[in-house]
Design a protein that fits this description.
This protein is an alpha/beta fold and 156 residues long. It is built from 4 helices and 8 strands; from the N terminus they run βββββαβααβαβ. It has a domain of 108 residues. The strands form 2 sheets. It has a 5-stranded mixed sheet, covered by helices on one side. Strand 7, helix 4 and strand 8 form a beta-alpha-beta unit. Helix 1 packs parallel to helix 3. The longest helix is centred in the last third of the chain and has 12 residues. The mean pLDDT is 92. The site of iron/sulfur cluster has 9 residues, from loops.
């Protein structure tokens, strides 16, 4: 497995309308590539521009927390952010894949979203999500936190 640290130019994807699958208004990928390497994952499709070999090579957006703070800063916005779910994870990465144990980017991102008081929707296949239950409880007190957990089975 190869890990590359990158500085992304931007982080947040803003949907024109609330996304009908996940109910989110904003999305982000904190990693590019996913070592869970699910056989059916469409992240390996060329249209997502994930460099390297999907499932083996993962790029870490090490400046993601800094970018999110900048992008959420109300002083920098002419039009304020609308209230809506921030979905963490998505088509090209699981935010709780094993490399998150070392980098803790997802945890930092949740702390920032909590500070700005937006609801969170997490998509994951990893029990590492349990590490951040304290932050989800905090988020859920004022907002509404959704954790969508999927898993594979050998039993059809
Ligand atoms: S966990 Fe999600 S992003 Fe990662 S390989 Fe599987 S389907 Fe793709």
């Amino acid at each position: 497995m190869s890990i590359t640290e990158i500085n992304a130019k931007s982080l947040l994807r803003k949907h024109k309308r609330i996304d009908s699958w996940f109910g989110a208004r904003y999305g982000m990928n904190l990693y590019r590539g996913c070592s869970h390497n699910c056989i059916y994952c469409d992240g390996r499709d060329e249209k997502y521009y994930v460099e390297g070999e999907f499932g083996r090579d993962v790029a870490v957006k090490i400046n993601a927390p800094e970018l999110l703070k900048k992008e959420l800063n109300p002083a920098r916005k002419r039009v304020p952010f609308k209230k809506g779910y921030f979905i963490i994870g998505g088509g090209v990465s699981d935010s709780y894949q094993p490399i998150e144990i070392k980098y803790r980017i997802t945890r930092q991102i949740i702390e920032i979203i909590n500070a700005y008081n937006y609801p969170i929707h997490i998509l994951t296949k990893s029990i590492l999500v349990e590490r951040d239950l304290d932050l989800f409880k905090e988020n859920n007190k004022k907002n509404n936190t959704i954790i969508s957990f999927s898993f594979s089975s050998v039993d059809n």
